[in-house]
Amino acid sequence: xxxxxxxxxxxxxxxxxxxxxxxxxxxxxxxxxxxxxxxxxxxxxxxxxxxxxxxxxxxxxxxxxxxxxxxxxxxxxxxxxxxxxxxxxxxxxxxxxxxxxxxxxxxxxxxxxxxxxxxxxxxxxxxxxxxxxxxxxxxxxxxxxxxxxxxxxxxxxxxxxxxxxxxxxxxxxxxxxxxxxxxxxxxxxxxxxxxxxxxxxxxxxxxxxxxxxxxxxxxxxxxxxxxxxxxxxxxxxxxxxxxxxxxxxxxxxxxxxxxxxxxxxxxxxxxxxx
Length: 274
Hints:
Elements: H1 11-38, H2 40-48, H3 56-68, E1 82-84, H4 90-119, H5 125-130, H6 134-163, E2 173-175, H7 176-193, H8 196-205, H9 211-216, H10 218-232, H11 237-273
Helix pairs in contact: 1-4, 4-6, 4-7, 6-7, 8-11, 10-11
């Protein structure tokens, strides 16, 4: 495909360019998913690790519980549940979908690169320079979020939900898809939530958000954060606070980023006028 100058491209040329970027992005996910499918044992080890009480988070919380003299549920020998499959193709289906989501996580930096490659030609030189490092920073934030979801949200959710008892006669036997859903949704949701500073950066660049706006509606953001924490964590206060704190820190960082972006834009306007 021959690249044209951005000023010479028609609407159909832009669509064609977007199509190729999407094809490359999807291809990267497929390749990464294929590798995840092949190395099943490694992926299964990651997925199943939060089920066992030797998981680092449980060990740390157990030690903290002993030190503070609090609830010792994190010090149990094992979580009170078993994982089952209730459909003929359940294990194969779980293998496929787990590989796809693993492929998305692995290929995320390259998917971002394709997105950036499509957007960047339409930016001015100074905007491209000021956005340097976008892929690296956005990828690091995403992986930090995934790690937070995996090491914090997932074990907290499993510990609370599997130890919760509605009736003593009912035993916990969860479907594999249900278990995978908790691990997957907790990790991916946190990964995308951690992209908040990047989102605020671009919203400020296009004039939709300002630091004043973010500070003014901080109290409403706090309510939204608490609701979000309640959605992606079990309904106990400790877990919600643990999840809410880093999101609030990200919000505060986003205000600072918005302030820096606006200050730089005002400087450039001043130089142009002078």
